[in-house]
Amino acid sequence: MTSKFRLLSSAMMVGAMLAGFAPAQAADAPAKADANGWASYGKGLDNTRFSPLDQINTKNVSKLKMAYAFSLASLRSNEATPIVIGDTLYVSSSNGPKYVYALDAKTGAKKWQYEPDIPDDVMQYACCDVNSRGVTFSDGKIFVGRLDGKLSAVDAKTGKELWVSTVVDYKQGSVITSPPIVVHGKVITGFGGGEYGARGSLQAYDVNTGKQVWKTFTVPLANEPGGDSWKGDSAVHGGGVAWLVGSYDPKTNTVFYGTSNPGPWATGVRSTGDSNYGKLTNKNTASTVAIDPDTGAMKWAYQATPADAWDFDGVNELMLTDLKIKGVVTPALMQANRNGFFYVLNRETGKLISAEKFVPANWASKIDLETGRPVEIADKRPGPNHPATDICPNLIGGKNWQPMSYSPKTGLVYIPANNICMSMSEEPGVEYKKGVFYLGKDFPAKPGPDGYMGDIEAWDPVTQKAVWHIKQPLPFNGGTLATGGDLVFYGDLQGNFNAVDAKTGANLWKQQLGTGIGAGPISYSIDGKQYVAVVAGRTATIPAFLGDIGKLMTDASPEGGTLFVFSE
Amino acid sequence: MRRSQPLSRLAATLVTGVALAAPVRGGAQVPAPNQPEVQTLRVCADPDDLPFSSAKPGTPGLYVELGQQIAHALGRTYEPVWSLSYFGKFTVRTTLLAKTCDVYVGLPGVKGFMGPKVVYSKPFLHIGYAIMARADAHITKLSDLAGKSVAVQFSTPPQMLVTTRDDIRSVTFLNPEDAATALDHHEVDVAFIWGPTAGYLNATAYHGAYQVTPIAGDGMQYPVKVGFARANEALRDQVDHVLDGLHPLVAQLAAKYNLPTEPPVAFASLRDVPDSMIVLAETSETVEQPAAAPPAASPPAEATAEPAAPPADAAAAPAQAASADDVAAGQHIFNGTCSHCHGPNAVQSVKRIDLRLLHHRYGDEMESVYHETVTKGRPAKGMPNWSKVFTEDDFKKIYAYLSTIQND
C-alpha cells in the first residue's frame, strides 16, 4: 500500500467515523459523508441501512453480475452483514465466528483471517444457532463478539489479536452473536440467554485495553427503582438480555438497545399470569432502553410487551431517523417489534408517538398511545390453566433479527416480515437440561391468515400503513438494503437474491445463490464503481422450533456460507 | 460441582475421516459377511453429569453402568459416546438422531418429548423433585413451607408451585448444586430441587446430614426410559427384553448412587393452585406414579459410592521423562500413521486438529485426554479408536514425541 493510498484510505476512515456520529438532521441526510462505505452493521449507528449510491439503479440493475464470491468456510446460519472501511471488506462466518476475514473489497483477495480460539463445546450453549452477525470497526481495530461470551479486538490491518475480554459465562447459556457498537472509545455489547436464567446487562470495554468500563443491568432487583415490577426474587434471573445490535444518537449522546423477553417462561413465577398484571410488568424486559454511553446510566426505557407471555423479545434493531410528523420534524426511533406492532417513538424523550400492526396480530387490539401499553385480548394470553390458541404472530415474531432498511428518498421502511401463528401452553412438553427434567412449553406453529408465511413489505412510518407487499411462501427471509438508485435488495430462504423497485416492489433482477439468505445486503463504492454484497447461508436451528414449517424451511435450500459481491 | 468437562475435545481428523469412520461403527448394523465380529453398543452419555453419568472410570454413574449391563446382556461391546447435554433436546438431535450412538439411556419417558423420531423402552426408573431439609424440619405438605425460605431451581415445577404462595420466600438457583450449597450454608431453610442430585450430594458431600423426600404432583415425577432412533425399533425390542432382568441391578444402582428411594409424598398439586401457570397435557404418563418403584430395600451400606480413586491406569500416570529413543520411535509411528490427518511432524494449519496445541488446550489434562482419545476414538469427529492397532507402549512413545513439540 503506498503512503498516498494509505492517506486516502485513512481519510475515508475518518469520514466513516464522522458519519457514524453525525446527527441525522433531516430526513434525507443519513450518513452522507460515508456515501461510499458501509461503516457498521446498520451502515451507520442509526441502523437505516440506506446507501445513497445510485450508479446501480432501477434502469440498469438488470445487468448486475457477480464480481466475486468468497467462501466463509463455515456452513449454516451465516447472518453477517459485512462492513467496508476504505478499500477493505470485513466479514465474519458462523460457528463462533469460526473466521473473520479482511478482503480487498474490489477483488475479494484475502488480506488476512482471524480464527478466534472458540471452545468446542460452545454449540451446547447456543440456544438459537451458532451465528455471528458481523464485526465492528473503530480506532484501527476490528471488534468481534463471540459465542464463548468473549469480545476480541484485532488489528484491522493485520488481523493480529490485540485483546480478549470475557463478557459473560457462556456455560449459563449466554452467547454473543451480534457485533458491538463503539462510542467515545468504549466498545458496548450485550449477550443472549434470556430464557436460561441470565439477567440482562450492557457492558462497555475500553477500545485500547479491553478493560470493562461500566456494566448496566437492564432488569432492576427488588431494592432498585422498578424492582417492584417483579414477583419474589424472579428479577435475579429475569432475562431482558440485549442480544441484537445497538444504535447511537450523537445529538443527545444516547445509545439504544432492545431487550429480550423475561424469564422464566411461566408468567405465574414473575407476574400475575394474566392481563391484569398491574405493576408486575417485569421491567425492563421486551423494552427499548436508552443509555448514556459514557457512564452506562439508563436515561429512559419503553416497554413494548409488559409481562410478556409469548416470547416477544423487544430486541429488534432500533432505527434512528427524523420524520416529518404532522408537519413537525421529529427525532424518531423506529422498531418493527416481534409482537407485530411497528413503533415510532420520540428518541429524545422516549414518548410513544404511534404504533400499528405491520403483520396480522391478534394478541392486542391496539397500543394505547397515552399509557404506551397494549390493549390485550385476554383470551390470547397463555396463562395458568389457560392455554391460548391461534395467537398471531408466533414466537419468532412479526419480524425477527433480519434487519430492515429505510430510504429517505421514498420515506419507506422495508421490513422482512413473518406471518405465522401459534398455540401456547396447550400441550406443555418436557425438557431436560443436563439430567434435570422440567416442564417445557410447546408452541405448535401454523401459517398465518391467508396462508403465506413471509412478507417483504414497504411501510410508511408516518401514516403507519403498508404501501406494497411481496408475499413469500416461507418465513425468515433476508434483511433488506435500500439504495439511492431507488432499489431494495433482499434475499429469501430459497436462496434468491432480489432487487426490486423501492416505490412499487416490482422485481427487476434476481439471482439464485444456492443457499438461503437471512443476512442484510450492503452496498459500497470503490474507484467510482458501485458494488452490492450479501452473505448467504441458510438458517439451521430455528426451523427445529417450528415443526412441519421448519421442515419446509430446511428443505428450501441447502446449508451454505459464502459472501457474494455484484457489480455492473 | 459444575466444572468444565474433563473429557474435552481432542481435535477431529479431516472431514473425510468422519465418512470413513462412521459406517464401520454402526452398532445396529449387520456384521459384514465373512467377518462375524462382536457388535458394539454405542451409548450416548454426558461425561460430567453425576449421579447419572461420568467419564471418570471410578464413578461411571447409573446410566453408564446400566448401559454397560444392557450391552453385556445383548452380547455386545459397550462403547461410550460422550456428549454434553446442556440442552437435552439439542443433544438428542445431534447424537441419537444423527446416528452417532445407538441408545440414549435416561430420557424423560413422557409422551411428545421428542416427537415420533425417538422411540422408547419401558420405563426403568422414576425420578423427580424432592425436598431436601434437615431431619427435624418435618416438611410433609406445602403449607409446612409457610414462613420459610426455599431454594428452588429456575424454571422448574417446584419454582412454579412455591411462587404461587405469598407466604413462602423462594430463592432461585440455576442448578441444584448451588441450591444445596445455600441450604448447607444456612442461607435457606429448605431446598426443593431435583431429587437424584439432592440424594447424591447428600451422601457424597454432606455425609447424609439431610433428609431427601421425593414429592408427588403434576410435573414432579417422571418415568425414565432408554431412547432409540425410530429406525432402531428392533434394538428397542431387544433392550426391552433384557431390561426385565435388570430391575434388581437398577435398584442396586439407585442405592449406590443415592437416589431417593421412598415413594413420593403427595404434597400439593399444581392443578389445585389456581394461580399456577401449569396446564399439563392429559397424559397419564406425566403423573404416573412409580409403577415399578425401585425397591425400598436398599443394598448394604458398603454399596454406597464414595468417589473411587481412579484405577491405576498406566497411561494416565504422570509422564516419566521419556528417553530420546522413545521420542524418535514415537515420531516414526506418528509420521507413519497419524500424519495422514494431523500432518507430517504434526505441522498442521487447521487449529482444531493441530496437535501442537494439546498442552495449550488441555494443560495438565493433556495426557489423560490424549489417552482417552486414542484408545476410545471420537467417531463423531472422525478420530478412530486405535486401541486394536497400537499397543499401550506405542501410545506412550507417540505421546513422548508429541510432548516435545507443544506450542504454548
Uncertain runs of chain B: 1-32, 271-320
How many beta-strand elements of chain B? 13
Gap between N and C termini of chain B: 28 Å
User: Over the alpha carbons, how many angstroms does the gyration radius of chain B reach?
Assistant: 24 Å
Q: Which structural class should the secondary elements of chain A be placed in?
A: mainly beta
Note the overall shape of chain A.
globular
Determine the strand fraction of chain A and express it as a percent band.
Answer: 35-45%
Main pleated sheet of chain B: 11 strands, mixed
Structural class, from helix and strand content of chain B?
Answer: alpha/beta
Count of helical stretches of chain B: 13
Q: Kindly state the percentage of residues in helix of chain B.
A: 25-40%
- Distance between termini of chain A? 26 Å
Whole-number mean pLDDT of chain B: 80
- Unreliable parts of chain A: 1-33
Can you characterise this structure?
- With 568 residues, chain A is mostly beta strands.
- Chain A is built from three helices and 40 strands.
- The radius of gyration of chain A is 22 Å and the shape is globular.
- Chain B is α/β, with parallel strands linked by helices and 408 residues long.
- In chain B, strands 1, 4, 5, 6, 7, 8, 9, 10, 11, 12 and 13 form an eleven-stranded mixed β-sheet that branches.
- In chain B, helix 4 links the parallel strand 8 and strand 9.
- In chain B, helix 10 crosses helix 13.
- Chain B is globular, with a radius of gyration of 24 Å.
- Chain B starts with 14 loop residues before the first helix and ends in a 5-residue tail after the last helix.
- The N terminus of chain B is likely disordered.
